[in-house]
Amino acid sequence: MVKLSVLTQQILNEQQSDKEIAAMDAAMGNAIKTLAAGFDANKDAIEQEVEKTDLKVNEALGAVAILGILLALPKVVQLIASGVGKLASVWKKLVKPGEAKGNEEEFAKKIIEFSHKWHKAYINGIKGLLKLVGVFKKAGIQDDAAQTKAAEVVYYTIIAGLAVYSGVGAVSAFKSALTTAPNAGNFSIAGLESAMAAIKSSEAVEFLRKIGVAAS
What we know:
This protein is mostly helical. It contains 10 helices and no strands.
């Protein structure tokens, strides 16, 4: 027979989990709005920066190469940071560094759940930003699928940064979480694997540092 105190604690834990997901869901929404507002206010300045910068792209278009392109554009990184920084600050208030260790699957599930609503909005928003200010044209990334992939790299690098900060360092935790997360449909394990593979590169570490998401 389950003790009332144990059952009560289980209910409280579930409510806390829901609150965490709700808080991060709201932060995701605010971040995308901040990103859009920042783009509108700084579009001309960013376009000028892109035009003056000599961008070189790796033909393989790997995650490290894409992050390297962004790091060559301080105003673009600053704009992304203006939105994502708020997201990261909320997550850091809810989760201590390394807190997920020993409970990785549950934390992976939380990340999947709070991000699902804004998944497409973030990727499309980043894609639109890089396209409209001329980053893709300057870097020679013309194919629509390649542009989507580049935007996904940025998105999943952010997700990987939040995961690693929390103590979830393996993609396997997300694979397991996908079987129980109610809103796992849009989550790309391939995208996360690519980001996780690049997460220790100097480019990824620098990118995450600049946008306020510690990689370790």
